[in-house]
TrEMBL record:
Its main location: membrane. InterPro entries: Poly_Biosynth_Transport (IPR050833), Polysacc_synth (IPR002797). This is Putative O-antigen transporter. The keyword Membrane applies. One of its GO terms (cellular component) is plasma membrane. It is a multi-pass membrane protein. Keywords: Cell membrane, Membrane, Transmembrane, Transmembrane helix. It comes from Fibrella aestuarina BUZ 2.
Amino acid sequence: MRGRLVALLPQGQWRKFSINIASLFSVQVANYLLPLLTVPYVSRVIGPERMGLLNFSMSYNNYFVLLVSFGFDVAIVRLVAANRDDHAYINRLFAQVLSAKLLLLALAACIFFALAIVDSSFRAYLPLHMATCLYCVGVALFPQWLFQGMEDLSRIAMLSLLGKSIITLGVFVLVRQADDFIYQNLIMSSSHVIVSTIALGIAVKRYKLTYQVPGWQSIRQRFREGFTFFLSSINNTLYSSSHVFMLGIFSTSYAVGVFSAGSRLELLLRVFVSMALNQALFPIVANGFGQSQERGLGMVRRIAPVLLTGTALIGVLLFVSAPLAVSLLYGNRFNEAVVVVRILAVLPVLLSMNSLLGMHTMLNLHMDRPYFFITLVGSVIGLSLNYKLIHQYSYVGAAIAWVCTEACVVIAMLGWLIYRRIAIVKLIRLNE
């Protein structure tokens, strides 16, 4: 597998890529392993119902995060990767994207307070939602798109580790009884704001950036570039992350807690292979497609065995270890999460295929509209399945709906690429 990755990288870039991968792995360790140190403690202190409330609030916040992000982490990464040696262009891009995100943050704040006024169920947990939505400030400030496009992710790895260490310490200090559960999300949000502010300062200093207020036309151009990806991210969220939100509406806080426990365990293991590798490879593959379609596809063909083999092994590990892992991490009150973990054990492979066919191939071939249409159909299927299955089977139905929807999206992407006569057989053949 290492030989395949070395072969797809331009000469001299293997060391930089290795550093980025190592940095991203450490970031993911910080993002998921360090908080998991607190899970056995928190789950036993606050119980499934209050854990469900925490996760339901985060599912609300996901939509505000999508609004503030606005697809820039994909659309602008491509621009940075293609123009990284043009300092004046990067400086203008920095000011335009930061301004756009701050405008979106203001819009998100207006929507938040409007919800608090008109929705009594939202207002009932307003302190919790305020603590959770503070996270959006960090989203607006964090220049991930810049670091990713520059292939310079190691600069933020230690900051992320520091931030998650603060969360871990803060939870043990502040969450002492069941009614302290709000502190969990408040600490998470505050830490992200601190880390994002420091990361922004590092970016300004490292790339010698200066902020000059951009014209409205240039900001509008960034919105246009990110709009398709913003719509696609909404669709992705509707079919891949709406389960908690709909469980909170149509079921109970207990069901939300059980489902969240199982899905987080799946995410913990999947993220090490898929997310870190995807973020490090996307700008490299984008450069490859910029040179020629065949070179870009050649890179994707070499990525396939690494992603699919790694995620398949993760799926097997999840299925086999589910009872022990749930018992150790969450305790006996979360035993029902075992069935959720086992249903979701197939997700690592499906999601890696989604990324391989969608982000790495369709988006780099500028098939933005078909990608949006496929994710739109996926969101309709996902919402429909969630509505029906959650009513009948609660958290088990949510898990089944997620797997079925992801399978439909992967099949649709595969079908579109075959229709466009892209070398799909070579793309997914593991013994190439």
